[in-house]
Amino acid sequence: MRTLFLAHNHPALQAGGTEAFALGLFRALRDGHGTEGLFLAGTTGLLRERRPGTLLQAVGGAADEMLVSLDHFDRFFLSQGDVYGLSSLGPMIERLDPDVVHLHHPLLWGMEGIDWLRHLLPRATMVATLHDYFLLCPREGQMLTPDGRLCEGPSGDACRRCFPERLSSDFMLRELGLRGSFAAFDALISPSSFLRDRFVRAGWPAERMHLLRNAVPAAEPAPHRDAPDGRRDRFAVFGNVNRFKGTLVALHASARLSAEGVAHGLAIHGGTAWQNDAFLAEFDAALAAAPEVRHQGAYAAGTFGARIAAADWVVVPSIWWENAPLVILEAFRHRRPVICGDIGGMAEAVRDGVDGLHAPVGDVAGLAAVMRRAAETPGLWDRLVAGIAPPPDLDAAAAAHLAFYRNLTTSAGRRRRAVRNRATA
């Protein structure tokens, strides 16, 4: 089977869960299941300067992984204006002649990229994984209001409150355009039941949504930290430092524990790239006010095990719905219970009282109380560690996706033949 994968970035340029899983799945299919193909990662001049003469650049040493320069992108309408650039990729993709096209994000590729691929490859099976809520929410898919409140879903009035400068027709055109483009896909994949249900509630057809879970690479679990006194009070947050990931909530919760005299430690693992000055000032102030917190900076994927070795708990303090955070799977891979918000895909992934603990989302006092309980309750950590089930690895995910592709290719072929037969009857 030949596959064409498209993502909005490559982990070599910027770490992110969507692109990490997409690339890991592509490599697992290639190395473990004998597929051939091409991984095309969109990029812009912010991450890699475009070279003269071509949209394509090498990334690393793999001949089947390439960067595609895709500037001229409209983030509100998810529209790619460089249709001439897209069309220049046609001969290469036609030579590949993929059986399956798998889109992992519409960012940079845009509606035009989807429409172009459908016309270029009429016989290919096309699938898309919905890794977040970008198709529902023009505020970067966060489904958060500007003042940080959770949004229950798109509506004309609610969206206008977030974008008062936009006309109502802009939201209608955005939705119609995206639904029309995504009709090109034979199936849509959701990594969580929560995200699938949100899309269905917003009017997307349930029969086109299929649940396939994310996965992480197989790895030897990092040994647990020695705790001679039995106290498990070392916490860690992993991921990019920003507002919607709840970094400030975690810092304020630690400061509260320190004020209450609760012994603990909190390590923040993640970079601060692309954050504005106002947020960085808040972050620095919150860090200075939390004496037990250490910011360890950005990290490479291969160092996760070494970093988590010093932690008893992984905290996921996100203030938005999340979908299927890879950090939770990584924590479970290394047999660390997770403390996370009580909403969305993170609450779906972590079973409260079984392999982790839920905290009220965005609530500093609530998170601090759960962290205190975690540190001070005898036997709780051991019981939760015993409840952790090993997460799926990339080879298992590749096998599940390959079976899905084959079944879909067969059924999609039947549908297309039926359409052609009706057209010529």
Automatic annotation (TrEMBL):
It comes from the Bacteria. Residues 81-217 form the Glycosyltransferase subfamily 4-like N-terminal domain. Transmembrane segments: none annotated. Pfam families: Glyco_trans_1_4 (PF13692), Glyco_transf_4 (PF13439). InterPro entries: Glyco_trans_4-like_N, Glycosyltransferase_grp1. PANTHER family: SULFOQUINOVOSYL TRANSFERASE SQD2, TRANSFERASE. This is Glycosyltransferase family 4 protein.
